[in-house]
Amino acid sequence: MKKFDYDLIVLGGGAAGFVSAKMAQGLGKKVALIEKNRLGGDCTWFGCIPSKTLIKVSTIAHQIKNTGKFGLLQNTDISLDTDHVMEHVRSVVKRVYDGHTPETFTKIGIDIFFGEAQFIDNHRIALGDKILSAKKYMISTGSSPFIPDIQGLDAVPYHTNRTIFDIEKLPASMIVLGGGPIGTELAMAFHRLGVRVHILETADRILIREDRELADMLSQNIQGEGITLLTKIKPLRYFCENGRVVLAYQDEKNRPGTIDADAVLIAIGRKPNVQGLNLEKAGVEYSAQGIKTNERLQTTASNIYSCGDVVGPYRFSHMAEYQAVIATRNALLPFQKKVDYRHVAWCTFTDPELAHAGLTEQEAREKLGDRIRIYRHEYKNTDRGRTDGIETGISKFICDSRGTLIGAHILGKHAGDLIHEAQLTKSLGIPFYKIYSAVHIYPTLSDIVRQPAKLCYIDRLQSNIFLRILRNIMGKRR
C-alpha cells in the first residue's frame, strides 16, 4: 500500500476547515491543515465577528438616542464619541481568534502549515519548497468579495468587508453598493453611529432572497431611519472630486444621476477562492460559482472533497460547518451521507433582524398554488412586545394543506433566535400546529411563533370532518 504523509490534508483554516480537521483527528486520522494567511477565516476576521460587534455598538448608540420613549432622558441631541469604536471591534476579533490559534491545533495533534498550496496531482501538493502527500484532501478555502467591473473603480479608494474593519475613524458619509445581507447590515450599523449612508442596489429591492413582504417592511424601516435607498440603478463610473468619491449612475428610466461620499463599501456578492490551487492538475472541476461536487461533497477527483463557501450554494458559517461534517464523514468513513438543503436557515442581522427558513410565499405559491395557509402575528400584539416598546416586527409561517411547515420568516427583535423553534419543527417533520400544545413561558417573544401555531391548530379543528359533523348535530339539537 502506498505510504502518504497524512490521511487527510485540509486546505483552508476557516469554519469548514476547523470542523473537518478536528473531526478527522477525532477519528484517529493523521491530519494537516494548511492556511494561506491567518487561521479563523472570513467569519473571524472580516465577517460574523466584527460585523456583529459593530452592530451591537450601533444598537447601543440607537437606544441611547431613543431613551425618551421609555420615559428617561428627554434630550435626544446627544453627541457620541465614536473614535474608539473600530478599536473595540478589533479587540473582540482578537479575543475570538485567541480561541483557535495554531497552538490550539498542534496541541491536539493537528499539524499546521502556512503558505500557498498548489496541487501537483490529486495526492500531492507543493507548499513552497516542501511537498506533502495525503490519501484524502478537503478543500475549504472559502470565498472573497466580488469586485464588479465598473469604470474608474480601480482608481478610487474603496472598502470591502475585508478592509472596512481596519479603518480608525468613521467617515462622515458612505456609499454602500449592494443591498444584500452584508450591505444592509453594515449600512444600518454605520448610519446609527452617525455616518450618512446611501445604499445603491441594481435589483428592484434589497435582500432579494427574502420573503418580499418582510423585506419591503425592513426596507421601509431602513429608510425611515434616514438611510437613502436607491434601487434599480446601474452604476456607470467612479471618480474622485474635491477629495470625495463620486458615483455616476443611471436610474430605471435611464436618467443620469450622481452621488458622492467620503467612503465607498462594495458589497455585491462573493466569489469562491480557487485561484492558485492548480485544481486542474488534481482533476478537480470548478466554475465561477465554486468547486463542483456531488451530493456527498466529493469533487471530480474521487479522493478530494470540498465544503464551505468555496462550494456554496449557501455561504454561511453554519452551513460551512454542516457541510464539513458530511464531507469529512464521507471522505473517511464507509457509511455515506448526502447533503440536504431543504432545511437551510439564515438571518440578516439588521435591526429588526430578518430570519429565514424554507420557502418564501412566492416560492410556495409557485410550488403549491393556492394550497397553502399563511399565519402571521405582529410583535406589537404580544404582551412582551408591549412591555419592551417594540413597534416593528412580524412573523410569517407558510404551511401546506396538512399543516406541515414549509416556510418560516420573522422580522423583529431576536428573530435569529426565535426562528429555531420553527426550524426544529420543520426539520423534524412535526406539524406546525403542535407547537401550540407545548407550554411557552409568559411573557416572552415566543408568542410570535406560538400564536400563529394556534391559528394553524384552529384551522385543523375546523377542517376535521368528525368535528364538523358533531357541530352540525349539536347545532340541530339547539
State the main characteristics.
478 residues; 23 strands; alpha/beta; FAD/NAD(P)-binding domain; Enolase-like, domain 1; 3 domains; 24% strand; 14 helices; five-stranded antiparallel sheet
Topology summary:
Elements: E1 6-11, H1 15-26, E2 31-35, H2 41-45, H3 48-65, H4 85-97, H5 102-106, E3 111-114, E4 117-119, E5 124-127, E6 130-139, E7 143-145, E8 173-177, H6 181-192, E9 196-200, H7 212-224, E10 228-230, E11 234-241, E12 244-250, E13 256-261, E14 263-266, E15 270-272, H8 279-282, E16 286-287, E17 290-291, E18 304-306, H9 317-332, E19 345-348, E20 353-358, H10 361-368, E21 372-378, H11 383-387, E22 394-400, E23 405-412, H12 415-428, H13 447-463, H14 465-477
Parallel strand pairs: 1-2, 1-6, 2-3, 6-18, 8-9, 8-14, 9-10
Antiparallel strand pairs: 4-5, 5-6, 7-15, 11-12, 12-13, 16-17, 19-20, 20-23, 21-22, 22-23
